[in-house]
């Protein structure tokens, strides 16, 4: 999520027993067997999440129950199906969201549900609303450009210096006559630019080296990988019915993008390893040369010392023989 501004409890009316949250209508488990299994008060289950503004006294008695309910739902793999949870991936990813709703129902917390706090990029905003939070949980796009965080699950963008996501279009390119579509697209562009700005500041704090031609081309290559699938892209719809129809096609597109992006990033690391390996070989050759030089010098001086010793011994022997002759 991206915070676009401060969220204050008194601004939205949160109070004891009445947390403030945002609507999450796809939590259909509140209306079916899932709620009946995991809470004793299923009628109090509310489809909320994303942003929670809760009184501290409620939070103290709520926190551990939230954890336990999340673990309980995560372990209930028999009810992972999309038609039970609303999770299009049927993988238990939203277990903590159900854990929250079930724990709140157990304590009979009644939410003040606000639609003017959070928005998914790609959704049409309410007129005049200044949303405080972007939740980029679904694919969204403008024209030929789109973004889905799941495409980058296996690409190490954070630890690859100056890597970034494909740049969204410039806001000046949005010329739609439909005001709703225009506002929607401007928010999508703002979210995409905010993500890349955050990555830039992160790489800068890591003291990444200056952008080189190699790294620049790698970054462009990554961008090309995901923008090349123009005809394959599926714009994420707000309707859960449309989401369900597009899941299979989106997964194919995502897998192709991930494989290419991961291969590109792997080549970055491979080039770095090759550079390090070359440096090690140079150092090894230099070290061996020094050792050989020292051995040659050592042998030379050892030979000189042996020659000098033999010369002194020879002179001593001659002097001794001369003395013996004189004595005789």
Short description:
54% of the residues lie in helices and 7% in strands. It is built from eight helices and eight strands. One of its GO terms (cellular component) is membrane.
What is the fold's blueprint, element by element?
Layout: E1 2-3, H1 9-12, E2 20-23, H2 33-38, E3 48-53, H3 56-75, H4 82-85, H5 95-106, E4 112-113, E5 118-119, E6 133-134, E7 140-142, E8 145-147, H6 179-205, H7 213-227, H8 240-327
Parallel strand pairs: 2-4, 5-6
Antiparallel strand pairs: 1-6, 2-3, 7-8
Helix pairs in contact: 3-5, 7-8
Transmembrane segments: 280-302
Organism: Aegilops tauschii subsp. strangulata (Goatgrass)
GO molecular function: glycosyltransferase activity
Protein architecture, described:
The structure is a single chain. By secondary structure, this protein is mainly alpha-helical. The chain folds into 2 domains: 2-114, no CATH class; 119-277, no CATH class. Helix content is 54%, strand content 7%. It is built from 8 helices and 8 strands. The protein has helices at 9-12, 33-38, 56-75, 82-85, 95-106, 179-205, 213-227, 240-327, and strands at residues 2-3, 20-23, 48-53, 112-113, 118-119, 133-134, 140-142, 145-147. The strands form 3 sheets. The chain has a 3-stranded mixed sheet with strand order 1-6-5, with helices on one face. A 3-stranded mixed sheet has the order 3-2-4, with helices on one face. Strands 7-8 form a two-stranded antiparallel sheet. The radius of gyration is 35 Å and the shape is elongated. The termini are far apart. Residues 230-255 and 322-328 have low confidence and may be disordered.
């Amino acid at each position: 999520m991206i915070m676009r501004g401060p969220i204050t409890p008194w601004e939205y009316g949160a109070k004891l027993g009445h947390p403030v949250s945002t609507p999450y209508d796809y939590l259909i488990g509140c209306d079916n067997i899932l709620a009946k299994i995991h809470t004793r008060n299923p009628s109090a289950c509310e489809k909320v999440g994303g942003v929670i503004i809760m009184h501290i006294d409620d939070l103290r008695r709520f926190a551990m129950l939230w954890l336990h309910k999340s673990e309980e739902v995560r372990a209930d793999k028999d009810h992972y199906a999309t038609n039970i949870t609303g999770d299009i991936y049927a993988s238990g990813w939203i277990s903590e969201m159900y854990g929250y709703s079930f724990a709140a129902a157990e304590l009979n917390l009644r939410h003040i549900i606000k639609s003017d706090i959070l928005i998914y990029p790609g959704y049409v905003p309410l007129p005049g609303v200044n949303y405080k939070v972007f939740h980029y949980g679904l694919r969204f796009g403008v024209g030929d450009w789109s973004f889905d965080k799941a495409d980058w699950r296996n690409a190490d963008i954070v630890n690859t210096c100056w890597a970034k996501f494909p740049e969204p279009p410039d806001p000046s390119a949005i010329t739609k006559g439909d005001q709703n579509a225009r506002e929607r697209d401007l928010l999508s562009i703002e979210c995409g630019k905010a993500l890349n700005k955050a990555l830039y500041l992160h790489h800068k704090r890591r003291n990444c080296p200056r952008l080189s031609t190699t790294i620049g081309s790698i970054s462009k290559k990554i961008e090309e990988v995901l923008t090349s699938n123009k005809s394959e892209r599926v714009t994420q719809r707000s309707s859960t019915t449309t989401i369900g129809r597009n899941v299979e096609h989106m997964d194919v597109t995502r897998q192709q993008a991930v494989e290419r992006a991961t291969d590109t990033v792997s080549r970055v690391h491979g080039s770095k390893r090759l550079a390090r390996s070359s440096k090690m070989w140079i150092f090894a050759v230099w070290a061996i040369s020094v050792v050989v030089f020292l051995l040659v010098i050592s042998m030379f001086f050892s030979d000189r010392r042996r020659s000098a010793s033999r010369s002194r011994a020879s002179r001593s022997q001659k002097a001794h023989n001369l003395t013996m002759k004189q004595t005789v």
